[in-house]
Amino acid sequence: GRTYDAAGATAVVMDPRSADVLALANWPSVDPADLADASPEELMNHATGFTYEPGSTFKAFTVAAALEEDAVDPDTVFGLPPSIQVADRTIEESHPRGTVSLSVADILAQSSNVGAVKVGLEVGERKFDRWVRRLGFAEPTGIAYPGEERGIVPELDQYSGSTLGNMAIGQGLSVTPIQMAAAYSAIANGGVLRQPRLVVREGGARVAEPPGRRVLDERTATRVREMLEGVLGPGGTAAEVEVPGYTLAGKTGTAEKAEDGGYSESDFVASFVGFAPATDPGLLVAIVVDEPRGSYYGADVAAPAFGQIAEFALPHLGIPPG
After folding, report:
1. pLDDT mean for each 10 residues of the chain (322 residues)
2. What are the backbone angles phi and psi of residue 129, rounded to the nearest 5°?
3. 39 burial class (0-12, 13-18, 19+ CB within 10 angstroms)?
4. Which of 33, 38, 83, 158 is a plausible cystine mate for 154, CB 3.0–4.6 Å?
């Protein structure tokens, strides 16, 4: 947060197998002994109270929905023009390019907007809406923390012609960091969505593990997990982030902030959600940085923080390399 002079930032560290929250930090920090001068913004737990448009981190769910609906395979190739028109909206890539052909796996690794839109359009509005809700968006996760926000997902009858195109790239809907951590945990753990848990023991007694519900087929979760390794591999958007001995997986995101019915050209939310080891994840980290200055790309702002946390936490938790 400080490096990029951000308005706010949060990091959620979870065990994706149980959805136990291992650590949760917000920046700027407040002095618990002197809360009188703290603003409501400073007192907010960003992890549960900050709603934002997820941008490219949401593309993993677009791909998961398309796989579940048998609309695509990881190696399905799409011809991708430099931009795509969806009703009244032209959606472009974050960096200009010519026409290319990319597989679904490469679309995710390189974070192609045009590619993600094409994948989303293959799913269709009704099915896409069902998958977004099934993955826990538009509802509080139920974490035991007061004042949890639920985000905003448009109802089907509110869709305009461009809604599906926007939502496929994580715009036009809002989420919380804890929702993203929970939904990514379902990808990491083989397809089961669980209510994030803050407390394992209360008054000496063990708190019951919240029941999970299967939201993705195990094969789908595995395939998306493998594709998310490509984000941190050669040619991926976070290729420079590495932890020796561990294979990492995750997704970068950079979203323009919604304002006055449009989008800001100067205020962004940069984020990264990742997990490790990629084949059998024992650690998941979601990082969201509000209004970074200097660079605003998730790859620059949030992904390196994931690398630093993972480098410390993996050996600290005794998670073997892999």
Report:
1. 82 96 88 70 86 97 98 98 96 93 97 98 98 98 94 96 96 97 98 92 80 96 97 94 97 91 90 97 97 89 96 96 93
2. -60, -40
3. exposed
4. 158
Q: Cα–Cα distance between 177 and 131 in angstroms, integer?
A: 18
Would you state the pLDDT for residue 35? 67
Q: Which residue has the tokens 């995101």?
A: 253
How big is the chain by its Cα radius of gyration, in Å? 19
CA distance 111 to 156: 26
Question: Do residues 268 and 277 make contact, with C-beta atoms less than 8 angstroms apart?
Answer: no
Neighbours of 162 (CB within 10 A): 18
Number of residues in the chain: 322
Q: Do residues 94 and 113 touch, judged by C-beta distance below 8 A?
A: yes
Just list the catalytic residues.
56
Edge-first strand listing for the sheet containing 8-15: 20-27, 8-15, 283-290, 262-276, 249-259
Q: Is residue 16 within 8 Å of residue 140, measured between CB atoms? A: no
Retrieve residue 185's tokens: 């945990």
pLDDT given for residue 31 in this prediction:
67
How far is the CA of 33 from the CAs of 8, 37, 38, 46, in angstroms?
Answer: 21, 11, 11, 20
pLDDT for residue 260:
82
- List CB contacts of 300: < 8 A, sequence separation 6 or more: 270
Integer Cα distance of 92 and 111 in angstroms? 12
* 293 SS3 class: coil
Residue 34 φ/ψ, nearest 5 degrees: -140, 75
